[in-house]
Amino acid sequence: MKDITEYQDLVEAQIEKLNTHPTDLSLYDPVSYILSLGGKRIRPVLTLIATDLFGGIVEDSFKSAIGIEMFHNFTLLHDDIMDEAPLRRGMPTVHEKWNINTAILSGDVMFVQAFVMVTSCKTKYLRDVLDLFNVTAIEVCEGQHLDMEFETREDVSIPEYIEMIKLKTSVLIGCSLKLGAILADANKEDANNLYDFGLYLGIAFQIQDDILDVYGDASLFGKQVGGDILANKKTYLLLKALENANTEQAKELQSWLNDNNNPQQKVKAVTTLFTDLNVKKQAEEMMWSYYDKAIESLKKINLPKDKFQYLLDFATNIMERVK
Amino acid sequence: MKDITEYQDLVEAQIEKLNTHPTDLSLYDPVSYILSLGGKRIRPVLTLIATDLFGGIVEDSFKSAIGIEMFHNFTLLHDDIMDEAPLRRGMPTVHEKWNINTAILSGDVMFVQAFVMVTSCKTKYLRDVLDLFNVTAIEVCEGQHLDMEFETREDVSIPEYIEMIKLKTSVLIGCSLKLGAILADANKEDANNLYDFGLYLGIAFQIQDDILDVYGDASLFGKQVGGDILANKKTYLLLKALENANTEQAKELQSWLNDNNNPQQKVKAVTTLFTDLNVKKQAEEMMWSYYDKAIESLKKINLPKDKFQYLLDFATNIMERVK
Predict the structure, then answer these.
(1) What is the C-alpha to C-alpha distance for residues B58 and B47, in angstroms, rounded to an integer?
(2) Would the ipTM clear 0.85, i.e. be above it?
(3) Which residues of chain B make contact with A105, given a CB cutoff of 8 A?
(4) Residue B223 shares a structural domain with residue B170
């Protein structure tokens, strides 16, 4: 097994070699652009790790791994239109740099390019790879749908929220790992347990993200702390706070939700309410419960000790962010 | 072989049985909606015909055939956003009935559903089917890109126009036929010649559409005659007219292109200019040249006489529209 950074370097080198521009049509400019914006490349890295875990040939998984990264970037491209996001990784989003029509159509072609890459595996793996990827792609669309729907709903429950983050982000983490397992001839049970490991770790990671958005150290977190509060985002923390609040607290919380004129005070007051309502602790408990599920799934996989330890360290490192 | 209407009935029955709504998420409402708007279902019909031609089991091709129709409808859904089209088959378009975000995301999930359906063939055909469909999907995106790009370009050439209609519409006709051939174990050469037959017939059909839009009988054509002229659409006729015009005629044509206030006079004057410039005849020649290429490809296919005749009659019937 290699260090995460080594896998990242391998992925980055592959992306640099990639011909995302098969013709000179400007249709492909946004594809090259969004892929050039970088990122941690965590999904293809997971595919390569999974291939390595089961003794597969990492190089044979490159194309499928990059396909997953392309699919992820396609979803970012379309999500950014829907969210009217001006920036992505500090750079203009595609619909801002070009226009909405370009973002729709370049996204569509990028989606097909992702399919081409993912399915350019050996034909003997094709059916399993395709079934996994198709289901995942559908679920990711469903997750984005729920996320948008929640914006206008006042009755989102915690289980619905967990279902949304599972579909929107975690299934693709599980898929990335299982893909690598399939390409390394892992048996079905191991591949499914590895999927579950990724799925649960993904949910834990997302809840952690909600916590860090409020309680994180801005310089380490890399995002504006309080961003979710300012956007009235229905995170685990807000939903739990609404659940826990007595009439008076609910009134106060609601009045801050309606206030868009005092950002600094809003972040401070809502954070204080969150703390008073014990939601940070409850969010952490929920996060650790999903972490525990991830580790339970990990233990079920038939792996030599050193490879088990590798994944355990990986999971622990991810959770280190809040410790 | 069955009558076209029988194949259409088979397709329609399959679409009615289709579970386009696998969960109760409203994400799937537009998918069910656009598929319910009807249409001639020509693409899946062609897949079934092709399967029948080579002695395949038509029922085994149902799912893949419907997948092609779903893909086609997905492209309509996204194209309608880009074209700001208010109506589709006389009914509100998805972005009008819902909103742009819904149209983007429901389109995306429909795209995946199309992949699932197309690739739910027997695994032994999977690689060939996937390679064909992936290439075609990419080409269709490229065609839509060119079509949009042409709107703002003043120097579109006839070969570029032919390339655009080939990518935007004809490759999917070729793909529909070749898909059926693959699923019926046809040999590669026959499958490719059948693809070419569809490709060239598709181009002929599209040029015919340009002609009918100007010279057709409104009651038979089913669209507003003169629509392309009013939209300044860069059809074969307009491009050829601009090519043929002398300075004075070019000036007159240009002044009508800039005039959006006198629709009736505009249609009449531009039609007269087209006739004076001999473009109807040239368009018909071009159309027949592609028809001839289609028949040449047809002749190369190893088919019993009655099946050859079936496809010949099909092609002739399509061309009958202008006769």
Answers:
(1) 9
(2) yes
(3) 78, 82, 141, 144-145, 148
(4) no
